[in-house]
Amino acid sequence: MSRPNRRRRRYTRTEEPSHNSERWLVTYSDLITLLLVFFIVMYSMSSIENQKFNAIVSSLRTSFHGDSLLEGLGYPSVDKGQTKPTVPLDKEPENVSDAKKKKDNQHLDKLYVQLDQYIKENNLDPDVSLTETQRGVQLTFREKILFDLGKADLKSNAQSVLNRIGTILKSVANEISVEGYTDNTPFRDKSKGIRSNWELSGLRAQTVMNYLIDKDGLEAKRMHFVGYGEYRPIVKNDTDAHKAMNRRVNIVVIREGKSE
């Protein structure tokens, strides 16, 4: 008996694909591409935020009518049509304006020392007092050292004081404001044409200013005067002593950059 004819199964060997050793480059290039896109997006976002920041700074400058507040915080001023950094720097180079102000402060400090020495050496305090303010260096003369009560003509002994003061003031080139004040006692002098405390205070300030120009040689272009009358007292006009304190003339040496 014959055996059944069996089909012979043919076995074929499946070949495994060969391993590509450079396939990692594809993954690496994808990663690099993604990182590049990421940084481009981040850069574009930062540019937008910078524009918003610049807009805010410009708006604040407009609101505060100038650059002084923002410059005090460390932000440089921005002029129209010019591009300037908007990020505050830890330390900025000293510009010409700052250097000029610094030099001016040094001159005023020296002036203060000279005036203070003169007042002390001649025992003029409290009739002449000296203070340093934000406006500048201020000399205050009480009425009795310069004028008789209700008069606008200088006393003879006041001239020697103003002569020395004027000589010291010539050591600086700053503007000078001469300012007159009175108490609140109603005043009128028909013979002199003075109708009020306001006019009296202005005449006294003008008299002192003219003396500094004519006798001491101060440049007229540096000088101006103003009369405030009774409207800016330093103490209440409730006693004779307080009224005497309010009747005064100030000579103010104005700091660089300080306007009236």
From TrEMBL:
A Gene Ontology term for the protein's cellular component: plasma membrane
Superkingdom of the organism of origin: Bacteria
Keywords of the record: Cell membrane, Cell projection, Cilium, Flagellum, Membrane, Transmembrane, Transmembrane helix
Membrane topology: Single-pass membrane protein
Ranges where the OmpA-like domain occurs: 134-257
Main location, first listed in the record: membrane
Composition bias type Basic and acidic residues, residue spans: 89-103
UniProt entry tagged with the keyword Zinc: no
A matching Pfam family: MotB_plug
Places the protein is found: Cell membrane
Transmembrane segment boundaries: 25-45
InterPro entries listed in its UniProt record: Bact_OuterMem_StrucFunc, MotB-like_N_dom, OmpA-like, OmpA-like_sf
Stretch list, region Disordered: 75-103
Family affiliation: Belongs to the MotB family.
PANTHER family (UniProt xref): LIPOPROTEIN YIAD-RELATED, STATOR ELEMENT OF FLAGELLAR MOTOR COMPLEX
Name used for this protein in its record: Chemotaxis protein MotB
Originating organism: Sporolactobacillus terrae
